[in-house]
Specification:
Protein name: Alpha-1,2-mannosidase, putative
Pfam families: Glyco_hydro_92, Glyco_hydro_92N
Largest sheet: 9 strands, antiparallel
Distance between the termini: 72 Å
Number of helices: 20
Keywords: Calcium, Signal
Helix content: 25-40%
CATH class of the largest domain: Mainly Alpha
Strand order of the largest sheet: 6-7-8-9-18-13-12-11-16
Radius of gyration: 27 Å
Number of domains: 2
Mean pLDDT: 96
Strand content: 15-25%
Cofactor: Ca(2+)
CATH superfamily of the largest domain: alpha-1,2-mannosidases domains
GO molecular function: carbohydrate binding; peptide-N4-(N-acetyl-beta-glucosaminyl)asparagine amidase activity
Shape: globular
CATH architecture of the largest domain: Up-down Bundle
Low-confidence stretches: 12-23
């Protein structure tokens, strides 16, 4: 008996100790910035790089394994590091701009990217959002980085060596460096970019060391030079020291899109703080933002996955503004090349991020999103159009006019509490909705056809025409919603309401799927619903048919009613993952990612269908939403380097997980509603910006208890399949009773279904 008691006491002591250790961890400790880095062009497990940065920081830093100009700047499987790069890359497909690289080394002076590269191991790598450390084996140097929003500090720990060096590589396509030994400083600029910039684009940088230089060199391409200054296609600088074993050299670095003087001003973000203080402040900054959502009652892997996704949701769009000498907000315009007052943000594609990332900002960061809206108004005034994919200026990629959703959703949810120029933004939406832009991805390609026929025809040489039509119809719905809120003329309101029903023009009653239509009104033929591309964007008809976010009931009616609609949803998961890649001529990575997922035609790795599991709520079968959402969370996301199932895409795929783990999702931005799913954790607490809290409690939640039996909202039984944004913002307590058996009576009545335009009174 005594032995049993002792063992019991020991067990309880160990359990208490484990609980204390676990509770001592802060949110940032769960983040793994390497999630998604085990990727390649043919198979994306995220296509991310470890962004060492502050939330929405102007400048990110990343270790660089790829060669200069390679969009895959860091891949987990690589053996060598070529440097540490300041980056503004939103995705490998968009590539980078405003980048330069820093690399320390010892011994023989080797400055080209291949020669200076060093073997490294993940075993000697520490990766946090606010801190990076790695041991460079070939040089016997430990390099550490910790950033601020526009600056960063390096800490190099050198061995004893007569020839220790730091290379600053300003890269090709036009660059300049100048070494100023008396100030222990390197200044310069880089112009390397991937498009979307004015002719005068430069990223100005300054790097200051705390140790005198023994010698200096510059280089042009592969040619080593003796001078202190060079302007050429590919410029670089090298500063050298004698170091003792374990000697630490500190380097402070900052950049600006405005000027050298502004770069110096941005360097002051570091102040007089030492490396560890900057690191501590960075950790605190991340904990502040990540800690706004607290999850409890889950596995360690679920915690790590959740906070890693939350980290990715807090990176883009990046701040593209700076503070002048008087503390005023200013920006270099990527639209006209001028330095102007006011906010500017960039590096986001609305085709991806309108779906969940921007609604997440509207829920948790309305003040920041108000600044983003001001930045969009500035973009319109400076460039004549709203960006659909900005990096940093207008880029010609993807389809749709989804800036309408981003603008409308922000105002409809928080506009009354924020102060920005919604009139200019509304003008921008109307302009973009009725005109083809200077690029096919700006404004609306085929706008004249769409406005005349109600669809973009298949046979008029406008690619991805069915996808454009479906997205334009949804975008028109968001304009309709915004026009009502702004009390626009009845005629204008009715126009956009009518246009929002244009999705019906592409519904094929024979296949009960969306199908391209020719100018003469006949459907295109032959039709293969498994054909990717062609009339659709990075998907097929099985993926895009559900892109009627605003009128799911209308879509269900076309399919023959709710039962037929739900059966069609079922087919997405039961069909084999067959595909027709003939439009592309090869298997694009998005196809392969669907094929290997073993979820039928459900291609969660790409955006068009990510909302689809939530649509069972509109047909009175919410338990199927609960099943498939949990399946997707469990199977498609992990906290490992291969932890995504496709491109992460600027926070969108991450925000899907964050929302879904909380138990609801914004199927239709531009409405007040979130559609219910199934919470992942036993308890989730959201601390809203207004000081209110949302408590989401599911104490019986488990791997098997994935179904919602009952729900109470603020103590009252709640049968609806949706939650109101307005009501949540007032603070709310949700109590989920979870079970392992589907409840096929809750949420089955039409009055419990989420919003559909066809049901609007």
């Amino acid at each position: 008996m005594t032995n049993y008691t002792n063992l019991k006491n020991l067990f309880l002591t160990l359990l208490l100790l484990f609980t204390c250790v676990t509770n001592a961890q802060e949110a940032v400790d769960y983040v793994n910035p390497l999630v998604g880095t085990d990727s390649k062009p043919s198979m994306s497990n995220g296509n991310t790089y470890p962004a060492i940065a502050m939330p929405w920081g102007m400048n990110f830093w990343t270790p660089q394994t790829g060669k200069m100009g390679d969009g895959w700047a860091y891949t987990y499987a690589a053996d060598k590091l070529r440097g540490f790069k300041q980056t503004h890359q939103p995705s490998p497909w968009m590539n980078d701009y405003g980048q330069f690289a820093v690399m320390p080394l010892t011994g023989k002076l080797r400055f080209t990217e291949d020669d200076r590269a060093s073997w490294y191991s993940h075993k000697s790598e520490i990766v946090k959002p606010h801190y990076y450390s790695v041991y460079l084996a070939d040089h016997d140097i430990t390099t550490e980085i910790t950033p601020t929003v526009r600056a960063a500090m390096f800490r190099f720990t050198f061995p004893e060596n007569e020839n220790s060096h730091v290379v600053l590589d300003a890269l090709d396509k036009g660059s300049y460096v100048k070494i100023i030994p008396s100030e222990r400083k390197i200044i310069g600029y880089t112009t390397k970019n991937s498009g979307g910039v004015p002719e005068n684009f430069k990223n100005y940088f300054v790097m200051v060391f705390d140790k005198d230089f023994e010698s200096t060199k510059t280089f042009s391409g592969e040619q080593l030079l003796e001078g202190l200054e060079i302007e050429t296609d590919h410029a670089g600088a090298i500063v050298s020291f004698k170091t003792q074993r374990g000697e630490v050299v500190i380097a402070k670095v900052a950049s600006s899109f405005i000027s050298y003087d502004q770069a110096e001003l941005n360097l002051k973000e570091l102040g007089t703080d030492d490396f560890d203080t900057i690191k501590k402040k960075g950790r605190a900054a991340w904990n502040k933002e990540l800690g706004r959502i607290k999850v409890e009652g889950g596995s360690m892997d679920q915690f790590r996955t959740f906070y890693s996704c939350l980290y990715r949701s807090l990176l883009f769009p990046r701040k593209f503004f700076e503070y002048d000498l008087n503390g005023n907000v200013v920006h270099y315009s990527p639209y006209n090349g001028k330095v102007l007052p006011g906010y500017m943000f960039t590096d986001t594609g609305f085709w991806d991020t309108f779906r969940a990332l921007f609604p997440f900002l509207n829920l948790m960061y309305p003040e920041l999103n108000a600044q983003i809206q001001e930045g969009l108004a500035n973009a319109y005034k400076e460039g004549g159009w709203l960006p659909e994919w900005g990096s940093p200026g207008l880029r010609n990629v993807m389809v749709g006019n989804n800036s309408a959703s981003v603008v409308a959703d922000a105002y409809l949810k928080n506009g009354n509490n924020q102060n920005y120029d919604i009139d200019t933004l509304y003008e921008a939406l109307i302009h973009g909705a009725n005109n083809a832009g200077p690029l096919t991805a700006v404004g609306r390609a085929g706008a004249d056809y769409y406005n005349k026929l109600g669809y973009v025809p298949y046979d008029v040489d406008i690619n991805e025409n069915a996808a454009r039509t479906l997205e334009y119809a949804y975008d028109d719905f968001t304009i309709y919603q915004l026009a009502k809120a702004l009390n626009k003329p009845k005629k204008e309101i009715n126009l956009y309401k009518k246009r929002s029903l244009n999705y019906k023009n592409l519904f094929d009653p024979e296949t009960k799927l969306m199908r391209g239509k020719n100018e003469n009104g006949e459907f295109m033929a032959p039709f293969n619903p498994f054909k990717w591309g062609d009339a659709f964007t990075e998907g097929n008809s099985w993926h895009y048919t559900w892109s009627v976010f605003h009128d799911i009931q209308g879509l269900a009616n076309l399919m023959g009613g709710n039962e037929a609609f739900a059966a069609k949803l079922d087919e997405v998961f039961s069909l084999p993952p067959v595909f027709d890649e003939s439009y592309y001529g090869f298997v694009i990575h998005e196809i392969r990612e669907m094929q290997v997922a073993n979820m039928g035609q459900y291609a969660h790795g790409n955006q068009p269908i990510q909302h689809m599991p939530y649509l069972y709520n509109f047909a009175g079968q919410p338990w199927k939403t609960q099943y498939w959402v949990r399946e997707t969370m469990d199977r498609m996301y992990t906290p490992a380097p291969d932890g995504y199932c496709g491109d992460e895409d600027n926070g969108q795929t991450s925000a899907w997980y964050v929302f879904s783990a909380m138990g609801f999702y914004p199927v239709c931005p531009g409405t007040d509603q979130y559609v219910l799913g199934t919470p992942l954790f036993q308890k989730t607490t959201l601390i809203l910006e207004n000081g209110k809290e949302i408590s989401i409690n599911a104490p019986k939640n488990s791997a098997s208890n994935k179904y919602v039996n009952t729900l109470t909202l603020n103590g009252k039984t709640y049968s609806k399949n949706w939650l109101s944004h307005k009501e949540l913002m007032q603070g709310a307590v949700l109590e989920f009773e979870m079970t392992d058996t589907p409840n096929k009576t809750r949420g089955t009545k039409s009055e419990d279904f989420p919003f559909s335009l066809s049901n609007e009174k």
